[in-house]
Amino acid sequence: MPGSALFGHPPNNQDDWYIIRGLARFSHIPDKVLDPKKGFPIHTHRPPNFHYASRGPGIIASAAVTMVLVIAITGTRLGLRFFRRDLKWGLDDYFIIPAALLTIVFLAVVISEVTNGGLGKHIYDLTYQEVNWLFQVTMAVLTIRVIKADQLDVF
């Protein structure tokens, strides 16, 4: 099967066609208005004499450094609480554990968006598969946030 086409171009395979159709339906564009065989219309195009540059490596590096810092700081704090008997365990010490774990999970999702979803690239450098991955991960994260906000009565 041929690789995925660049976003905004005609599809290279059946998967691209379904992604275009799904994005059109999500955007409330009727089937008779948008023909998936022509590609998804975007209004930004690659500028002339454009030099390709991805910010992905910088995003991965900053996420990795942040992961190391979260693990080091949380581990140091909990290690001090465990080994020094004069330091008492408080409610904040119990809350820091899930906070650190969720931060690490979030940063892992960011790294997967860079490696699989094209995070850090311009829209005209993304393929339909990368746009689909970004869309699915973003919708999953938003769904989790809305469910959690509803449970916490934030709104």
Mean pLDDT: 87
- Give the SSE order as H and E letters: HHHH
Q: Which range best describes the helical content: under 10%, 10-25%, 25-40%, 40-55%, 55-70% or over 70%?
A: 55-70%
| Distance linking N and C termini | 46 Å
Shape: elongated
Low-confidence stretches: none
Tally of DSSP β-strands:
0
- By secondary-structure content and strand pairing, the structural class works out as mainly alpha
Strand content: under 5%
The main pleated sheet reads as: none
Number of helices: 4
- What is the C-alpha radius of gyration, as a whole number of Å? 21 Å
Describe the structure.
This protein has helices spanning 14-26, 56-83, 91-117, 128-152. It has 155 residues and is mainly alpha-helical. The model has no long low-confidence stretch (mean pLDDT 87). The N and C termini lie far apart (46 Å). The longest helix is centred in the middle third of the chain and has 28 residues, at 56-83. It is built from four helices and no strands. α3 runs antiparallel to α4 (128-152).
List keywords for this structure.
single chain; 155 residues; mainly alpha; 4 helices
